[in-house]
Write a structure and sequence with these properties.
By secondary structure, this protein is an alpha+beta fold. It has helices spanning 5-12, 26-36, 58-69, 74-86, 101-124, 140-146, and strands at 48-54, 89-95, 127-132, 152-161.
C-alpha cells in the first residue's frame, strides 16, 4: 500500500531542539494555531488556552519566569532562558479549569490532540517544535503574570526554523502494543 500524505507527514515529524535565528511571522503562527484549534473536544468547550510569545514578546515570558528563577540555581535560569531565547517563538498551553476528574482528563487529552495537530502543521511549514512539560513552567506566579491563573499547564512549545533534521528513532513494531479481536 502506498503511504498517504498524512501518513508521510506523521512518520516524518521530528522534535526539533536547535533553531536558526530566522523569525517566524505572528500571522503564520496564528493561522497554524487556528487550524490546530479544530481538534476534537468533549464538553462542548474548547478546553485549551494559548499564550503566544513571539520575537521580543519572549521577554514577557522571561520576566514572568523571574520569580520562579529566584527559587533555583543560576545554572537552571541560564539553561531555560537560553532555550527560550534560542526559539523564534514560544506558545504556553493550558487547559481551562474543570471540576470533575472526567472533565480534567477530557480537557488534557483534547489539548494534547490540539498540540499534535499544531506540531504536524508546523512540520509541513518547516517550523521545528519541542514540547516542554512540568517544572518551572507550572509556577503559579508565572501563570498569574500572563493571565493563566487557575489553569492547568500542559506544555511550553518552543518553535523555530531549522536546518538539520534529527534522524529517525527506532520504534517498536505496532505488534508490541496492538491486540486484535476479529
Amino acid at each position: 500500500m502506498e503511504k498517504t500524505a498524512g501518513q508521510q507527514l506523521i512518520e516524518s515529524r521530528r522534535t526539533i531542539r536547535m533553531f536558526t535565528e530566522e523569525p517566524i511571522a505572528t500571522k503564520v503562527l496564528y493561522e497554524l494555531l487556528a487550524s490546530a484549534h479544530q481538534a476534537p473536544f468533549h464538553n462542548k468547550v474548547e478546553p485549551w488556552n494559548l499564550y503566544l510569545f513571539n520575537g521580543e514578546g519572549k521577554d514577557v515570558l522571561l520576566q514572568a519566569l523571574e520569580p520562579a528563577f529566584q527559587d533555583g540555581p543560576e545554572s537552571k535560569r541560564e539553561k531555560i532562558a537560553g532555550r527560550i531565547r534560542n526559539a523564534a517563538a514560544c506558545v504556553y498551553v493550558t487547559t481551562k479549569a474543570f471540576e470533575t476528574d472526567k472533565g480534567k482528563k477530557d480537557a488534557l487529552l483534547a489539548t494534547a490532540t490540539m498540540i499534535q495537530n499544531f506540531h504536524l502543521l508546523c512540520s509541513e511549514q518547516r517550523i521545528g517544535l519541542v514540547w516542554r512539560t512540568g517544572g518551572i513552567f507550572e509556577d503559579a506566579r508565572l501563570q498569574e503574570m500572563i493571565g493563566a491563573e487557575g489553569e492547568t499547564f500542559v506544555g511550553l512549545l518552543q518553535l523555530g526554523r531549522y536546518e538539520d533534521v534529527p534522524p529517525t528513532k527506532q520504534r517498536q513494531s505496532i505488534d508490541a502494543s496492538l491486540t486484535i479481536f476479529e
